[in-house]
């Protein structure tokens, strides 16, 4: 196998060997492969908007929005399209190229789904990329999303198949794989990631990356989250269970296993130092969630990210189409609200 070649037949042994390389060798190899496929000094930025919070029927042990967990998150109705548009404009002005819209659902309802489709339409009209995370989908819903031009669908695997039942019991690991498969077959890009620090073992992290790496199409984006323990959830006690070097190793291994995938720093960045994040970028991370909030947890302020990028000489990926349409959309909104 040539360095940087895309493959889909990884073994757990191969991935663990990569993860356990001397740290300098791992970072060097990941950075070398990264440069084969991407601009090493450019980062894609996405902003996440919670379009419907709380009351989810799933029992995910990490989630503040599960109706089964005793958190202080109140159930809220789904946002209006205008609210989403306003948040999209702010995100676009800050430099985000993609708007990711998440709803706390096991699966979307027939009543609310038409509004979701409208949200995709208006955000795309701005020239931004669109992403949704709504839980499980049926074939009709997937086709409707395809018809309105959805760019990405997020459906995280969270952890390895073996450890998965320790975290979620209301939906199987295979359920998630089936949804991803249906979305990919419809021609919609997939965003799917995992969470580090939930009590899983080193081997579980390797198994998770193997699952992604052996998909017939690698996910376009793989967000790697560091657990944010939330009071009222079963994982509230899981604090400081993963050191930053282990997290960086996962990032670098993901880059080697999936050379053409955007590897995204996601939840948990508040606990990473600037130096740790710099090593993540050196190890092949080239995407972040950009904005002060990730659904219900805190995220570094946009100004802090901009300062870090300036220190590292990193540029935010531009969306030329969005820039050319932003003023036009802003003027249209002004006319509608006048």
The coarse silhouette is: globular
Q: Return the CATH architecture.
A: Alpha-Beta Barrel
Strand count, sense and closure of the main sheet?
10 strands, parallel
Category from helices, strands and their pairing:
alpha/beta
Number of helices: 11
CATH class: Alpha Beta
Low-confidence stretches: 320-326
**Spatial gap, N to C terminus:** 61 Å
Q: How many structural domains?
A: 1
H/E topology pattern: HHEHEHEHEHEEHEHEHEEEHEH
Calculate Rg over CA atoms: 19 Å
Strand content: 5-15%
User: Level of helix content?
Assistant: 40-55%
What does this structure look like?
The chain is an alpha/beta fold and 338 residues long. The chain has a single domain, classed as Alpha-Beta Barrel (TIM Barrel), CATH 3.20.20. Helix content is 40%, strand content 15%. The chain contains eleven helices and twelve strands. The strands form two sheets. Strands 1, 2, 3, 4, 5, 6, 7, 8, 9 and 12 form a ten-stranded parallel sheet that branches. A two-stranded antiparallel sheet has the order 10-11. Helix 2 packs across helix 8 and helix 8 packs parallel to helix 9. 46% of the residues are buried.
Properties at a glance:
338 residues; alpha/beta; TIM Barrel; 10-stranded parallel sheet; two-stranded antiparallel sheet
Question: In terms of topology, how is this protein built?
Answer:
Elements: H1 12-19, H2 23-37, E1 42-52, H3 81-94, E2 98-103, H4 113-125, E3 129-133, H5 139-147, E4 152-154, H6 173-185, E5 189-191, E6 194-196, H7 202-213, E7 221-226, H8 244-257, E8 262-265, H9 274-282, E9 287-289, E10 293-294, E11 297-298, H10 302-312, E12 315-316, H11 320-337
Parallel strand pairs: 1-2, 1-9, 1-12, 2-3, 3-4, 4-5, 6-7, 7-8, 8-9
Antiparallel strand pairs: 10-11
Helix pairs in contact: 1-7, 2-8, 3-4, 7-8, 8-9
């Amino acid at each position: 196998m040539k360095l940087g070649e895309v493959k889909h037949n990884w073994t757990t042994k191969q991935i663990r060997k990569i993860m356990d390389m001397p740290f300098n060798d791992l970072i060097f190899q990941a950075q070398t492969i990264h440069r084969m496929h991407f601009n090493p000094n450019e980062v894609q930025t996405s902003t996440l908007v919670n379009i419907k919070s709380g009351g989810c029927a799933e029992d995910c042990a990490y989630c503040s929005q599960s109706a089964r967990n005793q958190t202080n998150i109140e159930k809220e109705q789904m946002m209006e399209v205008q609210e989403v548009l306003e948040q999209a404009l702010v995100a676009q002005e800050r430099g985000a190229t993609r708007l990711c819209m998440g709803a706390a659902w096991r699966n979307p309802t027939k009543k609310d789904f038409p509004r979701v489709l409208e949200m995709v339409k208006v955000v795309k009209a701005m020239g931004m990329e669109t992403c949704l995370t709504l839980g499980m989908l049926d074939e009709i819903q997937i086709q409707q999303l395809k018809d309105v031009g959805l760019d990405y669908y997020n459906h995280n695997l969270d952890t390895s198949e073996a450890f998965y039942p320790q975290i979620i019991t209301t939906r199987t690991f295979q359920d998630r794989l089936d949804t991803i498969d249906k979305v990919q077959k419809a021609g919609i890009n997939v965003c799917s990631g995992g969470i580090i620090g939930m009590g899983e073992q080193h081997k579980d992290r390797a198994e998770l990356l193997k699952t992604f790496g052996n998909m017939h199409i690698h996910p376009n984006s793989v967000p790697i989250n560091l657990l944010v323990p939330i009071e009222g959830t079963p994982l509230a006690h899981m604090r400081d269970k993963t050191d930053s070097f282990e997290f960086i190793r996962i990032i670098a291994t993901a880059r080697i296993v999936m050379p053409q995938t955007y590897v995204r720093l996601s939840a948990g960045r508040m606990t990473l130092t600037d130096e740790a994040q710099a090593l993540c970028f050196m190890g092949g991370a080239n995407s972040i969630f950009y904005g002060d909030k990730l659904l219900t947890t805190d995220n570094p302020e946009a100004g802090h990210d901009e300062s870090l990028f300036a220190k590292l000489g990193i540029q935010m990926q531009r969306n030329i189409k969005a820039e050319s349409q932003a003023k036009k959309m802003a003027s249209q909104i002004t006319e509608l609200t006048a």
